[in-house]
Amino acid sequence: MGLLALLLLCLSLLFSLSSGEISQTLGVCYGTLGNNLQSLSKSVQLIKGLNAKRVKIYNADPEILEALKGTNLQVSIMVPNELLSNISKNQTLADVWVRSNVAPFIPAVKIQYLLVGNEILSSSDEVTHISLVPAMHRIRASVKAMGFKKIKIGTPLSMDVLESSFPPSNGTFRAEFSGRIMKPLLQFLNRTKSFFFLDVYTFFPWASDPVNIKLEYALMSATNITYIDPGTGLTYTNLLDQMLDAVVYAMKRVGFPDIRLFIAETGWPNGGDIDQIGANIYNSATFNRNIIKKLTAKPAVGTPARPGIALPANIFALYNENKKTGPGTERHFGLLYPNGSNIYPIDLSGKMPESEYQLLPMPTNNEPYKGKIWCVVAEDANRTDLGSALGYACGQGNGTCDPIRPGGKCYRPNSLVRLASYAFSSYWAQFRKVGGTCYFNGLAVQTTKDPSYGSCKVPSITL
Ligand SMILES: *[C@@H]1O[C@H](CO)[C@@H](O)[C@H](O)[C@H]1NC(C)=O
Ligand SMILES: *[C@@H]1O[C@H](CO)[C@@H](O)[C@H](O)[C@H]1NC(C)=O
Ligand SMILES: *[C@@H]1O[C@H](CO)[C@@H](O)[C@H](O)[C@H]1NC(C)=O
Ligand SMILES: *[C@@H]1O[C@H](CO)[C@@H](O)[C@H](O)[C@H]1NC(C)=O
Ligand SMILES: *[C@@H]1O[C@H](CO)[C@@H](O)[C@H](O)[C@H]1NC(C)=O
Ligand SMILES: *[C@@H]1O[C@H](CO)[C@@H](O)[C@H](O)[C@H]1NC(C)=O
Ligand SMILES: *[C@@H]1O[C@H](CO)[C@@H](O)[C@H](O)[C@H]1NC(C)=O
Ligand SMILES: *[C@@H]1O[C@H](CO)[C@@H](O)[C@H](O)[C@H]1NC(C)=O
């Protein structure tokens, strides 16, 4: 073999090794907050059917890990938030946790990442904040002591750890975290050659400012919109790159320019409530297909600040999960319906030709809804649960349920559904502006159809 050939062989080996470690592959987040989801073994089949190479689960559920045995999927599991404080103070506890939740599944399950807590710095719980990095150290010590050399330790954070993210070169960690938590965290990640795990959704900044941020820019399908960062002169063509680079510059600002990013979660909701903009199948398919195309491209595309650097990622989520709380979008992030059917054709390996993508239903909510909305009892609401939900709603706010009390304008006909619809609407009309949702554990839905009757006028919100 010639010297040049040998050199080339070495180079390509080196390249394949390093790109193997930070491979351009996508995974899916397997959330299980639904009461109508497929069995664990069927779910694992469905994950493989999407051509996912990785899967992230939200706890160390032994039954899920059992179902993942023998698959080639690279698995991320989470240490529950509630345990961080105790683990940070107690090495024995860390050892016990790893020994009982991780060890039994190695090597049959390819456990690759242990994520300590979930979006810890987004909570207001100071005690967990300061426990985060010490807990990561303890978990790593346990993992090392047990000889699991391949497992990396990280923690997923969301964009709210930044105080400033625009322009990207202005990216800065929030002052209360910067020195106290981010620096030791980054030191840990840098020293252990782990990743900065980031939950990053272009949907949220776009939805809160759809006038100034163009939808195509957030969906990564703009061909004619660019933004030049005045600080660096770098040209941005989509919002995702901007958000990722804001984190890159924030890390650089505190002295860690080289820590790799791992997109722990990204995605776009395929549905939501009437008062939510842009959550639909068309946009969800567009965003997810675009990000798959970008992140599976070879050679790697990277971001303007880190051209050519691979970005591993997980799409959130496997299923639409009907038991998630909060606004409707939260229950509509799936690639699949609960029955296991695709919501739209998608292939996480990026190999499906675009010609195989069928026509999608055109979006009807890319503009904000204008008009009145009421919050009424959902068609399939469990009648037994309605009573206590009504009681809860009536107990909030000022005079919320006066009109449905005896003698009130809405007292008759006193059907439970009518009374509860009044209570839900009245509650929501008072509390929406401070974050109250029209949900009531799935008993309530938004409607544009006025439920008022006779002289009973049901309160509404007006957009
Ligand atoms: C943490 O440890 C304390 C004291 O040992 C114990 O009382 C508590 O239940 C533990 N918390 C959790 C979430 O395990
Ligand atoms: C540390 O954790 C172990 C295992 O759970 C427990 O037995 C022990 O009491 C804990 N130590 C302290 C000081 O809480
Ligand atoms: C940069 O971030 C700071 C806050 O960290 C903010 O006050 C400033 O307006 C930002 N600069 C630009 C150009 O947006
Ligand atoms: C980060 O890690 C690299 C490579 O191990 C090392 O050269 C560098 O000094 C580290 N940076 C900091 C700020 O610790
Ligand atoms: C970009 O192109 C789209 C479709 O071709 C067009 O609707 C839009 O107005 C263009 N935007 C800008 C900023 O030129
Ligand atoms: C699965 O559920 C979706 C949404 O409810 C429905 O449109 C589809 O027909 C169902 N598929 C099967 C195979 O039942
Ligand atoms: C309705 O809820 C009650 C109690 O919350 C439960 O016992 C019952 O099984 C539910 N009914 C249906 C049809 O789901
Ligand atoms: C109820 O009334 C009090 C006193 O007038 C007021 O401070 C409070 O904000 C009201 N609450 C709601 C939900 O409107």
UniProtKB/TrEMBL annotation:
<keyword id="KW-0326">Glycosidase</keyword>
<comment type="similarity">
    <text>Belongs to the glycosyl hydrolase 17 family.</text>
</comment>
<dbReference type="InterPro" id="IPR000490">
    <property type="entry name" value="Glyco_hydro_17"/>
</dbReference>
<dbReference type="GO" id="GO:0005975">
    <property type="term" value="P:carbohydrate metabolic process"/>
</dbReference>
<dbReference type="GO" id="GO:0009506">
    <property type="term" value="C:plasmodesma"/>
</dbReference>
<dbReference type="GO" id="GO:0098552">
    <property type="term" value="C:side of membrane"/>
</dbReference>
<keyword id="KW-0472">Membrane</keyword>
<keyword id="KW-1003">Cell membrane</keyword>
<feature type="signal peptide">
    <location>
        <begin position="1"/>
        <end position="20"/>
    </location>
</feature>
<keyword id="KW-0336">GPI-anchor</keyword>
<dbReference type="InterPro" id="IPR012946">
    <property type="entry name" value="X8"/>
</dbReference>
<keyword id="KW-0378">Hydrolase</keyword>
<dbReference type="Pfam" id="PF07983">
    <property type="entry name" value="X8"/>
</dbReference>
<keyword id="KW-0325">Glycoprotein</keyword>
<dbReference type="GO" id="GO:0005886">
    <property type="term" value="C:plasma membrane"/>
</dbReference>
<keyword id="KW-0449">Lipoprotein</keyword>
<keyword id="KW-1015">Disulfide bond</keyword>
<dbReference type="Pfam" id="PF00332">
    <property type="entry name" value="Glyco_hydro_17"/>
</dbReference>
<protein>
    <recommendedName>
        <fullName>glucan endo-1,3-beta-D-glucosidase</fullName>
        <ecNumber>3.2.1.39</ecNumber>
    </recommendedName>
</protein>
<feature type="domain" description="X8">
    <location>
        <begin position="373"/>
        <end position="458"/>
    </location>
</feature>
<dbReference type="GO" id="GO:0042973">
    <property type="term" value="F:glucan endo-1,3-beta-D-glucosidase activity"/>
</dbReference>
<dbReference type="InterPro" id="IPR017853">
    <property type="entry name" value="GH"/>
</dbReference>
<keyword id="KW-0732">Signal</keyword>
<dbReference type="InterPro" id="IPR044965">
    <property type="entry name" value="Glyco_hydro_17_plant"/>
</dbReference>
